[in-house]
Amino acid sequence: MSKVQIKPVRPVFPSPAGLVTSVDAEGRPNIITLGEIFNISIREPVIVGIAIAKPRYSHALISASKEFVVNLPTADMVATVDHCGMVSGRNVDKFAAYGLTALPAAEVAAPLIAECPVNIECRVLSVQEIGDHDLFAGEVVAVHVDEDGVTPDGTVSTSSVDPLCFMNWEYWTTGQPLGRIGFTRRE
Ligand SMILES: Cc1cc2nc3c(=O)[nH]c(=O)nc-3n(C[C@H](O)[C@H](O)[C@H](O)COP(=O)(O)O)c2cc1C
User: Fold this and answer.
1) Torsional sign, CA 80, 86, 89, 93
2) Cα separation of 40 and 18, whole Å?
3) Best substitution site from 15, 19, 32 to test ligand 1's pocket, by max atoms within 8 Å of Cβ?
4) Domain containing 126 — which CATH number?
């Protein structure tokens, strides 16, 4: 099989399609859809990265408040996720427009989205200008999961939270599990 070089645009996939909440100085909440959401430091401490372009209203809100919440939607929330990525909170109250429920967070002013089964509260540690987006590194200060989305050993049950993926400008579901990490060591 020969290889063909292509123009590199958003070359790494899949990523989650998530909804990130923030608040303005009066506490009014906003939501932005992000594909660029990733783990940076995974245990000690737990740090999540998000990449946001400067013109986004959420960029201004998170830069000022230094807090955000990553809300991971289920695959059936795909239309809401798309809507939240098509309009700006400068013009639209996205909670009201898309019938979403804001719940108070434990540690930050930005709200949780009740309809999303996983909600990750973050405090901004650093902001770096990198290329056409800015990288916000957020220390995770609390994580909430729907009761029926937690396994008996306290981890997230992937199948019940049914995460939404983003790749090649399309939304995807995650498909079937293929094996737990390290499964080849037992072969
Ligand atoms: C699937 C999807 C993924 C997106 N990913 C990002 C992203 O990672 N970073 C970003 O700055 N904008 C991203 N956007 C665009 C913003 O969601 C969009 O510009 C939004 O309207 C900004 O909202 P705001 O102005 O209320 O902050 C994405 C949009 C969609 C639909």
Assistant:
1) negative
2) 16
3) 32
4) 2.30.110.10
pLDDT in tens, the chain (187 residues): 999 999 999 999 999 999 999 999 999 999 999 999 999 999 999 999 999 999 999 999 999 999 999 999 999 999 999 999 999 999 999 999 999 999 999 999 999 999 999 999 999 999 999 999 999 999 999 999 999 989 998 899 988 899 999 999 999 999 999 999 999 996 6
Q: Examine residue 180 and state whether it is found in any structural domain, yes or no.
A: yes
Cα gap 64→22, rounded to integer Å: 10
Ligand 1 center to 32 CA (angstroms): 6
For 71-115, what is each residue's pLDDT tens digit? Answer: 999 999 999 999 999 999 999 999 999 999 999 999 999 999 999
Domain-embedded: residue 24:
yes
Distance CA 114, CA 103 (A): 6
Instruction: Reduce the DSSP state of residue 80 to 3 states and report it.
Output: helix
Ligand 1: atom nearest CA of 52 is 11
Closest-CA residue, ligand 1 atom 6, reads 34
**Residues lining ligand 1, CB < 6 A?**
17, 30, 32-36, 51-53, 56-58, 82, 85-89, 133, 166
pTM, rounded to two decimals = 0.98
186 CA → ligand 1 middle, Å: 42
